[in-house]
Amino acid sequence: MSFFGGALNRIGRFWDRIRHKVKPGLSGSSPVAIQPYRTFGRRDWVFIQGRVLKDKGIRFREKDRFWHNFMNTLKRFNSDEIADVPLELKIGNRLFNLRTDQEGYFKFETALLPALSVGYQDPFYKYTVGLPDNPDVKEVQAEICIPGPARFGVISDIDDTVLYSAVTSRLKIQMLYLTFMKNAITRRAFREVSAFYRALASDAFARNPFFYVSNSPWNLYDLLDDFLRLNRLPKGPILLRDFGISYKNRPPGYHGHKLDTILRIIETYPELDFVLIGDSGERDADIYLQVAAQYPKRIKAIYIRDVLERRRARRIRKLIAETWGVEVLLVTNFAEAARHASDIGLLDWGTFLAARE
To answer: What is the reported pLDDT for 219?
Structure first.
């Protein structure tokens, strides 16, 4: 586990020790927040995920001072989950009943017959979640990504791939500073990542879907969602992890959140090829090459952003030299990745230049 993941685990355990145990139900004076996540599916099958929490009133503005951002981050990790509460899930004209688990999460997947009618111009199908036992809480709407015709999908990491996080910095205080003292407006995206991603998403005949898979915890979902939107990155499911999951509770065959999630996405869309994008800071290259070994004909390219740490770069270059049958590139910037993607027909170079401007 990285220092970042370990630090977040320690933060979670600290808050669990000092707060009162959350009781099931909706008792208490704090308002309730339903937080459904943007997920993915097909016209004949959907996967839904979200959480029900006490609303901590997290709001942000560009002019917020460090202390305000710090308090917002503490609120995110000091989440008061609402366990074992009934929910009503509406997908089209279909109604489903489910309950939250002990950490306030709800997960649901189902086949849909007849299949949903989804417009190809907008691959996002809306669903709503409500609390039938608490009519004062308004239903909340979220989206399922149901791709239409596409040439390929893109699966991307977030930290140190699109969002500067300093996870690999020797001065870990820098990573903690960015996490706790910045917000979605003041966090920095890497240069040209938006242009590169929008050029990959654009297609004369299709809209190529994006999926963001990260080891960041669900507690940061709202911040990351706002960051992607504010930096004009393609909208897509943001698939994070529960950093409190114990080894004893992990299902059989569990290989880690990132690998298992990527494999699930690929298996959900058997007709779709994929481009994988990550960084050299952690184990993205290892995971992506493992995916390519399992699906050698479905991975069009792998791009690894070099975090400019020599030892890590040497290891990645060695992995690339030992790999055959898939396009793998270690890049220092996204213009370099865009040029290669243009050369192999994944994007139009003019589209990238226009997006960059």
So the answer is: 86
Domain co-membership, 281 together with 342: yes
DSSP 230-297: HTTPPP--EEEE-TT--GGGSPTT---HHHHHHHHHHHH-TT-EEEEEEETTTTHHHHHHHHHHHSTT
pLDDT tens per residue across span 105-160: 999 999 998 888 876 667 899 999 999 998 888 999 999 999 988 999 999 999 88
Q: How many Å apart are CA 311 and CA 316, to the nearest integer?
A: 9
Dihedral of the alpha carbons of 132, 136, 138, 139, in degrees to the nearest 10? 0
**Is 7 part of any domain?**
no
Q: How many residues does the chain have?
A: 357
CA-CA distance, 51 to 101, in Å (whole number)? Answer: 9
State residue 289's pLDDT score: 96
Predicted TM-score of the model (pTM): 0.83
3-state secondary structure of 306: coil
268 belongs to a structural domain: yes
Q: Which residues pair with 106 in a beta bridge?
A: 50
CB distance 272 to 246 below 8 Å = no
Please tell me the distance from the alpha carbon of residue 80 to that of residue 30, in angstroms, as a whole number: 10
Q: How far apart are CA 144 and CA 40, in angstroms?
A: 5
**What are the two backbone dihedrals, phi and then psi, of residue 155, each rounded to the nearest 5 degrees?**
-115, 120
The residue range of the domain holding 28 is: 22-145
Is 186 found in the same domain as 88? no
Q: Rounded to whole angstroms, how far apart are CA atoms 236 and 155? A: 10
Supply the DSSP symbol for 115: P
Q: Total domain count for the chain? A: 2
355: left (phi over 0), alpha (psi -120 to 50) or beta: alpha
Of 110, 145, 180, the position where a domain reaches its end is 145
Q: Is residue 14 part of a domain?
A: no
Inside any domain, residue 12: no
Give the C-alpha separation, 113 to 73, whole Å: 42
